[in-house]
Amino acid sequence: MSLYSAPDAHHAPDADVHHDIDAHHDVEYLPSLNPAPSYWPVLLTATMTLIPAGIVLYLWGGDSLRLLAWGLLGLGSLTSLVPVMGWCHSVIVDKWAGHFGEAAQGRDLVLGTKLFFLSEIAIFGSIFAYFFATLRHIHLDAGKFWPLDGSPAHWHVGLPAIGLGILLTSSVTCEVAHKMLLKGNKSACKDWMLVTIVLGLIFLAIQGYEWGVFVERGFTVESNVFGTVFYVLTGFHGFHVMTGLIMLLLVYGRLEIGHFSKRRHFSMQAASWYWHLVDVVWVFVFVFVYALYDAY
Amino acid sequence: MSLLETPPSSGSKATRPAPQFPESPHKAIRLPGGLLGILGSTDHKVLGMLYLALALAGAVFGGAFAGAIRAQLSSFDNEVLSPEFYNSMVTMHASVMIFVVIIPALAGFGNYLVPIMIGARDMAFPRLNAFSFWLLIPAGGLMAASFFVQGGTAGAGWTAYPPLSLKEYSGGPGVDMWILAVHLAGLSSITGGINFIVTIMNMRAPGMGLMKMPLFVWTWLVNAWLILIGTPVLSGAVTMVLMDRGFGTGFFKPALGGDPVLYQHLFWFYSHPAVYIMVLPAFGLISHALAAFSRKRIFGYTGMVWAVCAIGLLGFMVWGHHMFTAGISAELRLWFSFMTMVIAVPTGVKIWSWLATVWGGTIRFTTSMKFALGFISLFVIGGISGVWLANVPIDVQVHDSYFVVAHFHYVLVGGSVMGLFAGTYLYFPKMSGRFLDERIGNAVFWLFTIGMNTTFLPMHLVGVQGMARRIWQYREEFEAINRVISFGYLLMAAAGALFIYSIISSLLKPRTCGRDPWGINDVQNSLIWSIPSPPPPYNFDTIPVLKGSSTTGG
Q1: Which residues does chain A have within 8 Å of residue B547's beta carbon, measured at their own beta carbons?
Q2: Which of B73, B102, B236, B364 is the most buried (most CB within 10 A)?
Q3: CB-nearest partner of B12 from A11, A30, A37
Q4: A77 touches chain B (CB under 8 A)
């Protein structure tokens, strides 16, 4: 007696089965489908490999090979865009051609995206864990928290607070854009998306300005461990802001082409989730690195 | 033709029409055969076999590195290897065996078996799946290339503790290349983990509730969560080392206020769960092998599931037991010591359930069964020395000695590798349509098991007497035992060679296996044994519908 039956089979009562689940009515089942074979993934790993090669060359090639190292880094980043675009293109084509159970692919992408965010939280978590543990051991060793020698004596939180305000506002405008799309007002959606992108750029400019001021005053990653964790945390966050901006730009481009509809706009949804995540991380950075600096 | 066994019709009520797989638009698309076809393949079965082939190739290299270590240690004042090269061998043996052999091999079984076991046609993101696999090639390539750079390959141990891994003590690009290789392997793990979770949560056949999944699928679900939460932290930790080395940061430099011990915390937050990442799917394979060759269903399914979940959860709370001598506080030592011992409880649940699975069964001593039983015996030895090491006083005494080496090799070789052997002998007929030769298998098993014990059992002895690990020479009185250990290595190497020969010779023979090569599906009712060997493209013609409330047998 098989536990599995072909869908059209009549099946006999089964002694050790307590009740039959008429599965395809009780359980919502959305079948997924294999996409076509694709060369994009293997191509992406090949182009990506240029980046670590460039890093090794940058660190060890000396001045004579510095140019080649930058070349490899640039080439790796730029050529990686080709398979990334190709890959995204085939996902979109599969979706549009109706090759998938639309709901099934949406469902898989939603869960996959959330899990990806979880891994992002874990990696930010590792830096924050380092930050808090360092705070504690410096307190134990020196009887005080920051500032160590070489750090700013105290912090003007004005500029980063403006940055926080801008980033929070951009989260709101991103949501407004989404609402506009749901209402069917595509041109308003595009406008609000553009506002979001501009706000993101302003935030990056503020961060860049702040870095410039600090470096000018001689506060760098090499000053002390606070400099290290400050620049790495804000830099890693800035990198995520940049990634988010690229996503939003792609979304804007696709809005321009008219890809999204009320019901079908997963990429926009995912990009806005990512944007919110980057935002929330900045709230933590602002509170624990900037705002509490004088209190430590 | 239906791919599933149709039970005899006896005129009971007809089922309503079931959902169908959507017609594939791509069935007509055929990739070129050979290498070009493999490069573009997104088929979970092809990728699963690629993972396994990569792992086998990696094992040859990792085994050769172990051979170099044993050659150096075969006499006390040997100078076959330079001290630096010996350090490199120790580092690369561990790195290759972990990142290129055991983790990919288990991912290979997972890729191949999980979609079939849950009644799906592929993973949720087949292209991402291909990406995960191909990332391992540059990762292994970077490790291989680092042999040819100035200063040689990384020699700071696979743990890469600063300050040893910082520039002062590890000049040359070796460690940087190692770190970048770990990044690539980590990205591969994370994308793979996401893929497994989405596949298992979303793509189970109708009627297959979570508590009806085969145990191997459960172990991979928990495994994927460990990977997803742990691996990014490892990436973060090694990135900090990379920046300390090349970009002047002070994460682990006491002169700038940094603390090297924090690296150990971050590193073991991943690397202790990594121990379970390397053994949980092997647990799953063992469960299936034991049930199959006892002609029974798995005993204590529910308890096994909760035990796996408990091991996964507790695995994140015990990392400090690697750091008892690193200067952590007494309270932390107490906590980590206690939690480590607690892990023995769910592990014990599993061991007893395995024994109860065998109990009263119709036992067939196939090679797979022998490896499964060998797994239980040897894993228990490794587990018990693990409980010893959880005691702070004992750990402080034998820390960084060969006792620790013996312990984790009993867990990884006696556990993961034995599990992989058992899984290979069990599922090779399903994957290839051919049996592996049982007589050669018998020889592989005995050679490997005797060799494994000859190698690692005496290490306990020299360990408690104070022979330090990772040191290229040692005191003269340990020489006799080290000769025995090096001889044991030769036995394991012979077993490995015989195993590879066995696989190649089987692959050259014609296909002979039916759907159920071991004749167990009348007891187990598994999806995996109800489709042809090897499974056709897309695995299933129609969506399999799970009937009834009992769990899957094997």
Answers
A1: 3-5, 11, 14, 17, 20-21, 23
A2: B102
A3: A11
A4: no
- Going along chain B from its start, the domains and CATH numbers come out as 34-530 (1.20.210.10)
Q: A113: which chain B residues are within 8 Å (Cβ-Cβ)?
A: none
Closest by CA to B86, choosing from B139, B148, B156, is: B156
Q: What is the dihedral angle through the alpha carbons of A124, B257, A58, A122, rounded to the nearest 10 degrees? A: -10
Separation of alpha carbons B260 and A272, rounded Å: 38
- Give whole-number Cα distances, B17 to A7, A13, A20, A249, B313, in Å: 6, 19, 15, 45, 41
Q: Which amino acid is at A224?
A: N
Closest CA relative to residue A270, chosen from A236, A239, A246, A235: A246
- Those of residues 275-294 in A touching chain B at CB distance below 8 A are none
- For A39, name the nearest residue in chain B, comparing CA atoms only: B40
Q: B546: which DSSP letter?
A: E
Query: Rounded to the nearest 5 degrees, what angle is found at the Cα of B291, between the Cα atoms of B286 and B295?
Result: 150
The answer to whether B177 touches B122, Cβ cutoff 8 Å, is: no
A123 touches chain B (CB under 8 A): yes
Q: Produce one character per residue of A280-295: b if its CB has 16 or more CB atoms within 10 Å, e if not.
A: ebbeebbebbbeebee
The DSSP string of B21-71 is PPPPTTTT----SHHHHHHH---HHHHHHHHHHHHHHHHHHHHHHHHHHHH
pLDDT tens over chain A, length 296 residues: 333 333 333 333 333 333 333 334 444 676 666 677 889 999 999 999 999 999 999 999 888 899 999 999 999 999 999 999 999 888 887 777 665 555 666 788 899 999 999 999 999 999 999 999 988 887 777 666 565 667 776 677 888 899 999 999 999 999 999 999 999 888 999 999 999 999 999 999 999 999 999 888 888 888 888 889 999 999 999 999 999 999 999 999 999 988 888 877 888 999 999 999 999 999 999 999 888 877 76
- B527 CB-near residues (< 8 Å, 6+ apart): A4, B116, B117, B118, B119, B205, B544, B552
Chain-chain contact of B548 with A20 (C-beta, under 8 angstroms) = yes
Question: Is residue A219 a contact partner of residue A142, using CB atoms and an 8 Å limit?
Answer: no
Structure tokens at B152: 């040689």
Amino acid identity for residue B174 in this structure = G
**Cβ atoms B273, B98 nearer than 8 A:** no
Contact A272, A111 (CB under 8 A): no
CB atoms within 10 A of CB B512: 11
Residue-wise DSSP of B358-369: HTT------HHH
ipTM of the complex: 0.90
Kindly report the nearest CA distance between residue B19 and chain A, in angstroms: 7
**Tokens at A175, concatenated:** 């949501």
Q: A101-296: what fold?
A: Four Helix Bundle (Hemerythrin (Met), subunit A) (1.20.120)
Closest CA to B187 of B225, B242, B234: B234
Name which of A119, A134, A138, A223 to mutate to probe chain B: the one with the most chain B Cβ atoms within 10 A of its Cβ.
Answer: A119
From B123, B104, B120, select the one nearest B50 (Cα to Cα): B104
Please indicate if any CB of chain B lies within 8 Å of the CB of A263: no
pTM: 0.91
CA distance B317 to B335: 9
Q: Give how far the C-alpha of residue B168 lies from the chain's centroid of Cα atoms, to the nearest Å.
A: 34
Tokens of B96: 């290759």
A28 to chain B: closest CA residue: B206
Give the residue from B100, B96, B126 showing the smallest Cα distance to B111: B126
Length reported for chain A = 296
* 3 state SS for A28-83: CCCCCCCCCCCCHHHHHHHHHCHHHHHHHHHHHCCHHHHHHHHHHHHHHHHHHHHH
